[in-house]
Amino acid sequence: MDLEAVRTFVTVAETGQFQKAAADLSITQQAVSKRIAALERTLGVRLFTRAPRGAELTIDGQAFLPHARELLRVAERAVASARPGRRPLRVDVINSRGAGSGLMRGFHTAHPEIDLDVLMLFDIQGAVTAIRSGAIDASFRAVAAPGRPLPEGIESVRVLDEPLQLLIGPAHALAGARSVTLAQLAGHRIWMPGIVPGTEWTAYYDDLVAEFGLTIEATGPNFGSDALLDTIADTPALATFMGEHTLPQLPLGGAPSVWPADHGLRRIPVTDPTPVYPHSLLYHRDNPHPALATLRAHLTATTTGHDATGTWVPGWVIPR
Amino acid sequence: MDLEAVRTFVTVAETGQFQKAAADLSITQQAVSKRIAALERTLGVRLFTRAPRGAELTIDGQAFLPHARELLRVAERAVASARPGRRPLRVDVINSRGAGSGLMRGFHTAHPEIDLDVLMLFDIQGAVTAIRSGAIDASFRAVAAPGRPLPEGIESVRVLDEPLQLLIGPAHALAGARSVTLAQLAGHRIWMPGIVPGTEWTAYYDDLVAEFGLTIEATGPNFGSDALLDTIADTPALATFMGEHTLPQLPLGGAPSVWPADHGLRRIPVTDPTPVYPHSLLYHRDNPHPALATLRAHLTATTTGHDATGTWVPGWVIPR
DNA sequence: AGGTATCCACAACCATTCGTTGTTCACTAC
DNA sequence: GTAGTGAACAACGAATGGTTGTGGATACCT
């Protein structure tokens, strides 16, 4: 199917005749006729009834019209997403179920008129490089990795401290607990697959292990979130950490927000102290994108300062 | 922009190299190279970094990828909407703000997995013809026009009795009333532009006028809903009828559901008796579309029988 | 009723695009 | 260094898509 044919179809439907559409599109009437005929051939239905006074939509054409408009709208957005200069605000998040993604959803709800592109880069170095080059406008990260000061021009604002929770199956020894302390977790097996060495997450959990004597295994291949949840649910002696605002499953688009299979998983708050992910927004000081200022204002307005007493972050984290 | 190029882009992004993508698409590697180059030229950005081990997405490519997928998805739906056989359930409603549209929204919420196409045909004759030919699957109408029995094979189910309300401006004499009787309306000017002679609505209001001695004007050009509301709001002596479930304005897509300009309009219930629009679902007895049965079941389950005492419908309306 | 204007379809022709084959270039691994 | 892999460039043939020219059907006007 040809997008130009679809555009021609919409124009004919709007003008009511091939000739006016041809004038609008700066082509000849015969070209319009050919395009519509080709579209009708590929779809296998007649889209217009040709009358001596012009062309009228058939029922099939009426059903097709909103889809055609949507197609053109999506195509325009797709082009805009890549256009250099005046493109949508491009923000990197850690993963699609994390707190950064949730904050961006909130921003989109508050400012639906602002075009967004949310993407997931591999690590903080890539994000910083992308911010410096202007390829992306901002990034949600837990900064900064120890010994790696931010390059000149990159600024960061701590926007959300997300408490960690223990995620365990129904047969786990702590399944009935209303909360657990970090000290209680010593001796329990905690599994965090997918922690890639060299990323900021390694540094975070290294510090957590060193300070509270936990046993955290990062071994084994990471088969993705689903497999992790399955294993946690089925293994009584296994636990993992998950951010309080992190969804264990991707919300299904359009479907009622039920978790397809929650396996009876339990979320147990961690206390004394509560380890938190210090989410920060990274951006370039000189980035002129107007929506970036809106995003920063939105974040400072909605994520009011949390109480930091009783929480833990690595020592190298920049204070608020 | 060419959809085939977009499809090629997604395939390369998925396979990670031009050659595999070429094999998947049954074309040569050179053709893939050309298509990607052309797409990059039209977008003005580089989408892949060409490595000796294959192709990797650039940041721009990563931002473009979800849009590309969405574009292909929409294109597929667009084609499906017109495909003869196994197309989405196609339902005709009277207008986009009426009760039929609302019922279809409810059905979509309850069954998001069912593909729908909602369209608006001109009148009941056209709807019946379309149902007979199989061009549409069902239609929400106030049936049947007097003296026009339904053709063989067409069935109707009365699904909703929608009470009429009086819509008036803030300066109207009845603006303060909590409700009005039909008898009270005698002598007031009621304006119903856009009632096309020969449609079922003419018959409905003709009967209403004859039975209760009202003055209903259908004169003047119909400049659309906005103009009607403006006039009603500004003219103290003018009123119009509107269904209880009818939205005076189109809900804005994505925006908070505020009415852009409500002009201080008042809705006054009508009593003694309450005239109602008898909405029915029309469909062909032999229509095999599986979603049609689902729709009928949904409607009978959700629109439980309303109390008919104190309501009025024309005598020619088929009883429930 | 016949002429005329309007509007779309068909035919022929031409330019451009698109896909193919053949080949070259860059990089990696052994 | 040599073999192997993966993408780009060049040249050619086919097919697509645009144009001009023309014909046919219908409605309106005199």
How would you describe this protein?
Two copies of one chain form a homodimer. Chain A has 320 residues and is of the alpha/beta class. Chain A folds into two domains: 3-82, Winged helix-like DNA-binding domain superfamily/Winged helix DNA-binding domain (Arc Repressor Mutant, subunit A, Orthogonal Bundle); 89-312, D-Maltodextrin-Binding Protein, domain 2 (3-Layer(aba) Sandwich), CATH 3.40.190.290. Chain A is 37% helix and 21% strand. Chain A is built from nine helices and 13 strands. Chain A has helices spanning 3-15, 18-25, 29-43, 59-82, 99-110, 124-133, 200-212, 225-234, 290-302; strands at residues 48-51, 54-57, 89-92, 116-119, 138-141, 154-168, 180-181, 189-191, 215-217, 238-243, 266-271, 274-284, 311-312. In chain A, the strands form two sheets. In chain A, strands 3, 4, 5, 6, 7, 8, 9, 10, 11, 12 and 13 form an eleven-stranded mixed sheet that branches. A two-stranded antiparallel sheet of chain A has the order 1-2. In chain A, helix 7 links the parallel strand 8 (189-191) and strand 9. In chain A, helix 1 (3-15) crosses helix 2. The radius of gyration of chain A is 26 Å and the shape is elongated. Chain A starts with a helix and ends in an 8-residue tail after the last strand. Mean pLDDT of chain A is 81; it is low at 250-261. Chain A binds a DNA duplex (30 and 30 nucleotides) through residues 4, 17-19, 27-35, 37-38, 50-55.
